[in-house]
Design brief:
3-stranded mixed sheet; alpha/beta; 470 residues; 11 strands; 8-stranded mixed sheet
């Protein structure tokens, strides 16, 4: 059998059911890898080793008794923005260190009911604000392909952990690209579901419609399996989508029909263009899709520049309204204070207008794309960047500008509510991963899984692993 960490979660679950390995052995193996590699990667803020080993012993008993849920005993991890009862949840902020929630996020309950065992909380920037992962709690998350470079954000710790084989899959969240950005920078698969696909209950809020939780994994089937687990509405959700009529794991096994795929590489931001590596990845993906029988059609980027300032009003207003006590302000990072101050200058009228503009404008864009089934762009404009590159100037406004240079594509699909995925199809000459992004229409998550699985079968990536982490 392969090394345990080389198996994806689906194969790990099969090995457990076949009694080829125990959950205690499997969890201990991954905890040893965390102990060996996590510090260099900045992958975990909190490791819950004793709690995980106790759960693994219980999982082995349940498996032996028969009838256990399918992923009983398989390791995973939760992002440190996600409430986990009895486990410190710092949200990447010194101001929140020592905070221990008394309730789980609903998705945590769902993941635990499926039998998964969390090994801890993965690294995130302060309050998940950045497209790179760095904070004053443990510092940056780094891509295992080059640990001098940032893993991307805000689910950077989760992506680094999956890429390095510290866990087979992990939960992330995505309000402007925070699953797809680190997936690209870490050479793994990341899937942002449609708006409303995953509940933010019981205490979270979907007031802006931007953010959604989703999976980071090495294989498409693992991502589909995790989304099947968490894609269930909770009573009272504002924008619930019903459970899928066909499980996403079954959609993975289905070849999609011949699709019309619109592609563009130009950004909607004036003066910001993709670098040569991003364009090369996009061109290779286009050729691959055509070889699979799809019609790939060049179109102009349908989203206008005017979305950017309106997105910023919504983003900053959310940060300004976050329940952070005033006495915490001195320990917040400069970037956090920048967004809080910026949001504090917006009025309720400004926010209402911004939300109406974003909804109407993205609806127009989607309406104009009805002739196409799917959409292809680069995930990022640049490969993974050096750890200090984003904030080396010390100026939060320059920090934000560099984030736009890095990730001008991803937030559009948060505004529109479309499902979108980053696929690791390209590596630079220097060995850095560069993802491409596929998206479909709102609610068409199943079609997107079918398409991604078809691409994965034609150009497999799961066995390509970062040197030094095999």
């Amino acid at each position: 059998m392969s090394e345990l960490h080389e198996l994806d979660a689906t194969d790990q679950a099969a090995a457990l059911r076949a009694r080829e390995v125990s959950s205690v052995e499997l969890v201990r193996h991954h905890l040893e890898r965390i102990d060996r590699h996590s510090a260099a990667l900045g992958a975990f803020i909190t490791v819950t080793a004793d709690r995980a080993l106790d759960a693994a012993a219980e999982a082995d008993t349940a498996i032996a008794a028969g009838g256990a849920p399918p992923f009983t005993g398989v390791p995973t991890a939760f992002k440190d923005l996600t409430l986990t009862a009895g486990v410190p949840t710092s949200m990447g902020s010194v101001a929140m260190q020592g905070v221990v929630p008394t309730v789980n996020a609903y998705l945590v309950d769902l993941v635990q009911r499926a039998g998964f065992i969390s090994l801890g909380k993965t690294n995130t920037p302060e309050f998940g604000l950045s497209s790179y992962t760095d904070n004053d709690v443990i510092g940056p998350a780094r891509t295992p392909w080059d640990t001098s470079r940032n893993a991307g954000g805000s689910s950077g710790g989760a992506a680094a952990a999956v890429a390095a084989g510290l866990v087979p899959l992990a939960q992330g969240s995505d309000g402007g690209g925070s699953i797809r950005i680190p997936a690209s920078s870490c050479g793994i698969f990341g899937f942002k579901p449609s708006r409303g696909r995953v509940s933010v209950g019981p205490t979270g809020s979907d007031w802006s419609g931007l953010a959604v939780d989703g999976p980071l994994s090495r294989t498409v089937r693992d991502a589909a399996a995790l989304l099947d687990v968490i894609a269930h509405p909770m009573p009272g959700d504002m924008r619930p989508l019903p459970d899928p009529d066909i499980p996403f794991v079954k959609r993975v096994a289905r070849e999609p029909r011949r699709l019309r795929i619109a592609r563009w590489s130009g950004t909607h931001l004036h003066g910001i263009e993709p670098g040569p590596d991003a364009v090369a990845a996009w061109e290779r993906a286009s050729a691959l899709l055509e070889s699979l029988g799809h019609d790939v059609v060049d179109v102009a980027n349908p989203f206008p520049q005017e979305l950017e300032p309106q997105f910023n009003i919504i983003w900053s207003s959310g940060m300004a309204g976050a329940p952070i006590p005033p006495e915490a302000d001195p320990v917040l990072r400069a970037n956090t204070r920048y967004w809080r101050e910026r949001g504090g200058r917006q009025s309720a009228v400004d926010l209402a207008r911004a939300m109406q503009f974003v909804e109407a404008t993205t609806r127009d864009a989607i309406t104009g794309l009805q002739a196409y089934d799917a959409f292809l762009t680069p995930t990022l404009a640049l490969p993974p960047q050096p750890v200090a590159w984003f904030n080396e100037s010390g100026d939060p406004a320059e920090d934000h500008h560099r984030e736009l240079l890095y990730t001008p594509y991803t937030a559009l699909y948060n505004m529109s509510g479309q499902p979108a995925a980053s696929l690791p199809l390209h590596w630079t000459d220097a060995g850095l991963p560069v993802g491409v992004m596929l998206a479909t229409h709102p609610g068409d998550d199943g079609l997107l899984f079918s398409l991604c699985a078809q691409v994965e079968a034609a150009a497999p990536w799961a066995d390509r692993r970062p040197p030094g982490f095999d």
